[in-house]
Amino acid sequence: MLGKFFQKPGKEESERVPPGQHLAKGFPVLTYGATPEVSIEQWEFRVWGLAKPATFCWSDFMGLPQHEFTADFHCVTRWSKLDVKWTGIKVTDFMGLIELDPKVAYIMEHCYGGYTTNISIEDFMREENFFAFKVFGEDLPSEHGGPMRLVVPHLYAWKSAKWINGLEFLAAEELGFWERNGYHRRGEPWAEERYSNAFGF
Ligand SMILES: Nc1nc2c(c(=O)[nH]1)N[C@H]1C(S)=C(S)[C@@H](COP(=O)(O)O)O[C@H]1N2
Ligand SMILES: [Mo]
After folding, report:
1. Å from CA of 157 to ligand 2 middle
2. Which ligand has the shortest distance to the CA of 86?
3. 107-130 pLDDT per residue, tens
4. 111 lines ligand 1 (CB under 6 A)
5. Is 184's pLDDT higher than 60?
6. Is residue 4's pLDDT more than 70?
7. Which residues, listed in sequence order, are joined to residue 49 by a DSSP beta bridge?
8. Among protein residues, the one whose CA lies closest to atom 11 of ligand 1
9. Which of 47, 90, 118, 170 could form a disulfide with 176 if both were Cys (CB 3.0 to 4.6 A apart)?
10. Ligand (nearest to CA of 115)
């Protein structure tokens, strides 16, 4: 497994690499299907379900406080990349604009291209989660989810929706694309929550 695509982590790094993961060389691209090309002029972000429906444009997002984030990135296909440097907007700042129904317990993330992934409200509303529009100082390339993606550092990266364009607020959990295809509902890398069991957990 080691060699062309993976490197062995050093001692200090190895403590930051979850079980069953290797360090990737470079920054692999992992996409199911075609890469949507969306300009910032066309870009729109919608919220619906158990929230007051609203639509946001690019400049609405750019008006929120911008921060630099450094986060480790763990793909369930067993590569990790440490210290990815992003620029983005905190999920909690964006959520300050949303009027939520108190019954909300889950969210479906929606994307240009049709990808979906589910997340609980607790996993979503963390201080360290963000919408990213730059990586390593450059505008986020479309293959990495540009113009805007979500990053949820504490879960496997399939929860970090690229080309995100909407949040559907739910009372009960529904499954997204990979979760319907056997991936774990939550996907916590330190617990190796990779695949669901026969009971769907
Ligand atoms: N819209 C969308 N988001 C997505 C995916 C996808 O196929 N479509 N793949 C996920 C997976 S499995 C991973 S590992 C990361 C990969 O992000 P990267 O291509 O920037 O490395 O994006 C996640 N977000
Ligand atoms: Mo992944």
Report:
1. 5
2. 1
3. 999 999 999 999 999 999 999 999
4. yes
5. yes
6. no
7. 169
8. 158
9. 118
10. 1
